[in-house]
What we know:
Layout: H1 2-23, H2 28-32, E1 43-54, E2 57-65, E3 75-81, E4 88-94, E5 101-109, E6 125-132, H3 134-138, E7 145-152, E8 160-161, E9 176-184, E10 189-196, E11 200-205, E12 212-217, E13 227-237, E14 244-253, E15 262-270, E16 275-277, H4 279-288, E17 300-304, E18 314-318, E19 333-334, E20 341-347, E21 352-358, E22 366-375, E23 379-383, E24 392-400, E25 406-412, E26 418-424, E27 429-433, E28 451-454, E29 462-469, E30 472-477, E31 482-487, E32 496-501, E33 507-515
Parallel strand pairs: 1-19
Antiparallel strand pairs: 1-2, 2-3, 3-4, 5-6, 6-7, 7-8, 9-10, 10-11, 11-12, 13-14, 14-15, 15-16, 17-18, 18-20, 20-21, 22-33, 23-32, 24-29, 24-33, 25-26, 25-32, 26-27, 27-28, 29-30, 30-31
Amino acid sequence: MKKTLSTLIIAAVMHSVLNAQSNSKPSEEQLYRPDFHFTPKKGWMNDPNGLYYKDGVYHLFFQYYPDGNKWGPMHWGHATSKDLVKWEEQPIALYPDDLGYIFSGSAVVDKNNNSGFGDSKNNPVVAIYTYHNPKLEKEGKIGVESQGIAYSFDNSKTWTKYNANPVLKNPGIRDFRDPKVFWDSKRQQWVMVLAAQDRAHLYTSKNLKDWTFQSEFGKDLGGHGGVWECPDLFPLKVEGSNEEKWVLIVNINPGGPNNGSAGQYFVGDFDGKTFKTDEHFTKQLNKEKAAWLDWGKDNYASVSFDNVPQDKRIIIGWMSNWEYAQEVPTETWRSSMTVAREVSLKKTKEGYILKNVPVAQLKEYQGKSIKKNISVKAESQLIGKSEIDLSKSVIDLDLKKMSAGKYTFTIKNTLGEQLTFWIDNKTKELFIDRSKSGKTGFGKNYAKPVTKAPLKQLYSSVKMKLVIDKTSIEIFFNDGEKVLTEIFFPNENFSELTLSTDTKGSSLSINAHQLNIR
């Protein structure tokens, strides 16, 4: 009898515990902490900085304020990864000092010790960053921003700031920041591209300490709805040829294609001193006004890694938008990065497309998977709740036999919250609508208007890769020819994917994988 009674008591206790668990709301950590996009454990994060690869490790630095969840005195936070997917946060790398806050910049592996900081056995990694002086800013001075450097011999565990900083003083420009430096092997020099208010400045150096102004670019070209920031300049081979072009990425805030902050690009030639768009891209700009890296609202300050193996060009961006970044509904931390992406350059009759797709290493984490071939109906269930965990997944969609009409995909949860994205094959546009995706009442222009991207043609078939991680979706259309990145905050993880259409006769192939990373 005692045993039976004790068993009943234990069962009753367990039942009440399980009941309490089922009725309790998921924590912020459970609901909103991404599984495979980098977030700091606590505090505020924005632009990625100082990206480089060395000794089997990728280094990601970032604009960081550890003492609050809104922008504050900037530090360089630090994270590392062996595969660009699984990131581990490290101690803060660079702290503000008497010269100012530590704003955005880059890092290079100084293989030949041009800087002279190293010796025959140890070559340094050198960080180049902007000092932003809050005292001068408060006094209303123009020369608030200058460029400094620091160096490390132990894979960025410790840093020494150069005792003669700044290495590039302010020339009388208020917004003078975000240096991206690279080694120009053809001319045996270091090159710096710097954002200077409404244009980019180019400087060269032999030692990373003494910089000479060479040229400027962009005053009347591309998007100018806001200040230019976080530039990057690099060479890429044109797909299917031996032709090499130079690509200049420039981020802009505001003035993006769907409001707020965004990244644009230019394609042309660089002679060691001057960057100029080529004739083909100039025609493209005359028609389109700006070429956008990502048409979604949540990819800003994308820049590339230095010293990546096999000369791959890998970028990563800040997955938020200045219109609402400081008000998103997380408290412990704010912001995450995009997935790392490999970029390539495609030449078309109309111009150039800077394609970007998720790095191949993401495939190493594929777990449970499903494959389906579906004859598309007015309403089609594509992925059900129990099939895979949609909140950490990569889904390849291959849509064929398309006709003029709408193809609307919806990810949703049991609360009725949803995010929709659709191809309108009549108006030739791609859309995302997050107005019913959960928490939406914060910031400026978060849920409205609907995000849209032009597609230029009526498609008979398209491919889309979806990368979904709790609070974000990254849509890579036709191998990254168009990309849309957006964040969202449902009150329960999205668990189903459906398709509705006003057309007939189309077919869809689905190849979906759950990612097991944590």
